[in-house]
Design goal:
By secondary structure, the chain is α/β, with parallel strands linked by helices. It has one domain (about 5-250): Aldolase class I (TIM Barrel, Alpha-Beta Barrel), CATH 3.20.20.70. About 35% of the residues lie in helices and about 25% in strands. The chain has eleven helices and 14 strands. It is globular. The two termini are about 15 Å apart.
Length: about 250
């Protein structure tokens, strides 16, 4: 298999025991069973999979370790997980059961020291800080937490810098406004954040066609992620888990 110069990462949203997909963080639609999805992505030989539990933090729940253990046991690719992670013991447990990376979102804002502790204990390469960003009426951006429900009034560029300084090895940059719309990434946001940090920036929120991946990379993203593009098919958004052919991606990132 040819090696890609850019990682192309499906992001799958967990809610309870199932997978859902949102539009602008609203109206979650059921799209299937996570174990079945993993098996399909195994066959597609994807680079990496990211699971985000969008219900854990709002409900005050910790990660569903039983489900995550089953997911990890079936996956042939590197895995990342975020959702309800608020302690070092949870981080170490996730790494122990087979996840290579832990994604911190609300906890990164509430307890920045957790980023440093995790980086010191597990290495920066295992620590991802996720930023859910919303564009306000005046054109400025702000970072949101708690699954997009709470505005912490932080500038994304400065927030990303602080995350890097705290020890994050990667920034997962998600546009709430573009989530599920499939009209393209927020390239201005990607460019501003990626030019301010030296760690990899994963662009998320908005991919609908392959050329959007190239646009994100040209704007500074190190890797790209998508959700709807990998779980829906056609204008009626029928559920179909898919992934581009490797030769298409190789041509795209030449």
């Amino acid at each position: 298999m040819l090696m890609l110069s850019t990682r192309v990462i499906p992001t799958l949203l967990l809610r309870g025991d199932g997978l859902v997909k949102t539009v602008q963080f609203k109206a979650p639609k059921y799209v299937g069973d996570p174990i079945n999805a993993v098996k399909i992505f195994n066959e597609k030989e994807v680079d990496e999979l990211c699971f985000l539990d969008i219900g854990a933090t709002p409900a005050g729940k910790e990660p569903n370790f039983e489900l995550l253990t089953r997911i990890a046991s079936q996956a042939f690719m590197p895995l990342a997980y975020g959702g309800g992670v608020s302690s070092m013991s949870q981080i170490l447990k996730l790494l122990t059961i087979g996840f290579e990376k832990v994604v911190l979102n609300t906890s990164a804002a509430d307890s920045p020291e957790l980023i440093r502790s995790a980086a010191d204990e597990a290495g920066s390469q295992s620590v991802v800080v996720s930023m859910d960003v919303k564009r306000k009426w005046n054109g400025r951006y702000t970072v949101m937490v708690e699954s997009g429900a709470k505005d912490i009034k932080a500038d994304p560029v400065e927030y990303a810098k602080r995350a890097e300084d705290a020890g994050a090895g990667e920034v997962y940059l998600n546009s709430i406004d573009r989530d599920g719309v499939m009209g393209g990434y927020d390239l201005k946001l990607i460019e501003s954040v990626s030019s301010a940090v030296s760690v990899p920036v994963v662009a998320a929120g908005g991919a609908g066609v392959l050329s959007h991946f190239r646009d994100a990379v040209d704007s500074g993203a190190t890797a790209v992620s998508a959700g709807s593009m990998f779980v829906f098919y056609g204008k009626h958004r029928a559920v179909l888990i898919t992934y581009p052919e490797y030769r298409e991606l190789v041509r795209l990132f030449k």
